[in-house]
Design goal:
The complex is a heterodimer of chains A (253) and B (89). Chain A is an alpha/beta fold. Chain A contains eleven helices and eleven strands. The longest helix of chain A has 16 residues, at 147-162. The radius of gyration of chain A is 20 Å and the shape is globular. With 89 residues, chain B is an alpha/beta fold. Chain B is built from two helices and four strands, in the order βαβαββ. Chain B is globular and about 45 Å long. Classes of the chains: A alpha/beta (253), B alpha/beta (89). Chains A and B meet through helix 1, strand 1 and strand 2 of A and strand 1, helix 1 and strand 4 of B. Strand 2 (22-23) of chain A pairs antiparallel with strand 1 of chain B, so a sheet runs across the interface.
Chain lengths: 253, 89
């Protein structure tokens, strides 16, 4: 459901206006980046919303070098080329073609790291090249950049299968609230005890107040159960991984 | 001038069209310093009272609730566009 309609159903007359805050400068690859990308025959191009409507120059530059440019409209976005931080499952990307590499246009690592994480269970990893049009700087991401995250995820999943008392964390944030979906846990694991917790911003410091919980399941933004879980001593998994824990464990190398 | 298009004229148009009295501005960290200018423009051009969300703004999935007690009738969130909620991730 569209977040604007969802909010309307929750709070009635209050309205939501979303401002993309599109970058006003020029979005163009520098020569060094273009030279580097020449090694690839095809590239999947994505950007955060500040840049996703300004990619025409980049597409032209890549095509002039003979590089095929493809993209998609991921499941939760409104526009083609746009990627969200929560696009961490390959299926959600809706990318129909196989590519040699990914190119992300924007500043920061949060969005391009989603392009790495969505490949974590795929056989052939494709390099993620980041180009920051503000700093005019290129850098690369590989699975090495998420190694710590994946190790923690694997260890937490093992414990999830073994342990009995599970804390399920729900958020009040309307776009991230997954209570009904989380009820599948009880169907899938009838022998486990599930305790449901509600918070707005998930603060893992509060975990220590509930020592009877063996493993925590995050149902809010899946980046919390991956990126943030690294900084927490308690085992912490995402809902989707928990629902399919045996299969997901088998996918780790 | 901001490096990003904050669409202040569109916001002012919306406030007037909706006759909004209380507006909440929610900005991601990188755009939070722009709040001063946005509030000033709203004050200059409308009768609405602006509030600024102090906390996080992770995406369009992250809209504050419980604002009825402040009679907020318009939330303006910057840096994100429509998010399509699906069950599961």
């Amino acid at each position: 459901m569209d977040i604007i309609l969802l909010l309307k159903s929750l709070v009635g007359k209050m309205e939501l206006l979303l401002i993309d805050a599109v970058y006003q400068g020029e979005v163009k690859l520098d020569n060094k980046t273009l030279e580097y990308l020449k090694r690839y025959k095809s590239i999947a191009l994505y950007a955060a919303v500040q840049f996703s409507s300004k990619l025409e120059n980049v597409i032209k530059q890549l095509e002039q070098k003979g590089i095929k440019v493809v993209s998609s409209k991921p499941a939760r976005t409104k526009e083609k080329y746009q990627i969200l931080g929560c696009d961490i499952y390959h299926g959600n990307l809706n990318l129909k073609e196989d590519v040699d590499a990914y190119l992300h246009i924007g500043d920061g690592r949060f969005h391009p790291l989603a392009l790495v994480l969505q490949q974590r269970n795929l056989k052939n990893f494709k390099e993620v090249v980041m180009y920051d049009p503000i700093a005019k700087k290129m850098s690369m991401l590989t699975l090495k950049d998420v190694e710590v995250i994946l190790k923690k995820s694997k260890a937490s999943l093992k414990l999830f299968l073994l342990k009995k008392n599970i804390g399920v964390i729900l958020t009040t944030k309307p776009g991230q609230q997954q209570y009904l979906y989380s009820l599948k846990l009880k169907e899938r694991y009838p022998d486990k005890e599930f305790y449901y917790f509600i918070d707005d911003n998930i603060n893992s410091k509060n975990f220590e107040n509930f020592p009877f919980i063996d493993v925590w399941v995050n149902t809010a933004c899946p980046r919390i159960g991956l990126d943030d879980a690294v900084y927490v001593k308690e085992p912490w998994v995402n809902l989707d991984e928990a629902l399919d824990a045996e299969k997901r464990l088998g996918e780790f190398s | 001038m901001s490096s990003y298009n904050l669409e202040i004229e569109r916001i002012i148009r919306k406030i007037k069209e909706k006759k909004a009295k209380y507006v909440l501005l929610q900005l991601p960290d990188g755009l939070k310093p722009e709040a001063e200018k946005i509030v000033q423009e709203i004050q200059k051009n409308t009768n609405a009272i602006s509030f600024i969300w102090l906390g996080d703004c992770f995406g369009a999935c992250d809209i504050p609730l419980g604002l009825q007690q402040f009679q907020i009738d318009l939330i303006v969130q910057f840096g994100h566009n429509t998010f399509i909620k699906e069950f599961g991730w």
